[in-house]
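Researcher: Let's try something more involved. This one mixes different molecule types, so please make sure each is placed in the same coordinate frame as the others.
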Amino acid sequence: MTLLAFRTMSQLFHRIVRLIKVYPPIMPTKPLRLAAGFSVFLAVMIIAPLTTTVFTVGTIPAMAITPEEILGDPKLEARARALSKQLRCLVCQNQSIDDSDADLARDLRIEVRRQITAGRSDEIIIEQIHQKYGDYVLFNPPLDRGTVFLWLAPIGFVGLGVLIIVLARRNHPVPASPDLGAADRTRIETMLVTRNSANSNEKERQKE
Amino acid sequence: MSKLRLSFLLPLLAFAVLALFGAIALYSTLSGSRDPAQLPSVLVGKPAPQTTLQRLRQRDQNNDNSVTLTEFRGQPLLVNFFASWCAPCRAEAPALEMISKDITIFGIAYKDRSEDTAEFLQQFGNPFQAVGMDIDGRNGIRWGVYGVPETYLLDRNGVVVLRHAGPITRGIIENTIMPALEDLGS
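Model: All components are placed in one shared frame. Result:
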């Protein structure tokens, strides 16, 4: 089982490396192609499990909210729904309080609606809940000392990739395709023609 | 040959890197140093939220209708969120009984009915100096409670020193609460 998984991964890796070789001629040397293939492979390995959630999220009818929670004014209710989607449920990881059936999520939804009815602004409502439950409750955590790596890492990785490509191109400029003389052209053409006719001869012989 | 070796090693290396992250996460979870269900409390180091609750009537105690957190100022205090419907709260009852000899405990019955709370205390013992009723759980939200039982240690000025989510055990009393309490005493 492990062996099979590893073989599949290995095949995936080779396919990526081959694609890089065939598609852009920007990775002229083998180690660089392997390095590039390695980073793409790593990215695929990390992103692949995430996509399953992305594709299934839209298909699940999420209706945790119960009729008695809903505010009379549709405008206020829309605000409440939008706010609830930004707040993460604390007892059911990776669901918003809007999606979750948990008791605490329901209590927080009611709290959000109570604050909206009291005329508080969206920012103040989010900030109040943030103060009580910390960054964990926000799907969009603020940029501060604790989360700086989280925010900057993707930019850093893209930068690293660009750097590798730039260095690779500088060290190994793409060789200009050699200009074929007229004599070479005719030679190639005759070679191709003879080979094609040889092939067809072969086929005919097989038929007989 | 070198192509074969490198192209064989690189995916293996990629897998090793991912496996390493997984192993670290798994190890720290199993060894107990990381619990994904334990969320840090924002309240630690800050004054506890103002809390005035309906007091649970008990036979031999005063008949004030409400209980306030400030009543307990001037001494370290344990605030314990519990409920009669919560199984781990039953499990922690003996440990709370044990520590109630060393510190005053203010119990907050979270989303519970008075009759049920009273019955629970009768059945599993009452280690609390006073019990406040947080009937709709709004007070719990002010404290950042995300599940019962949760226990907060407050210093004599009402500042939160530590928070423990989940049932109190003998081990948590000995390794976490008592050392913190001794620090407060000095």
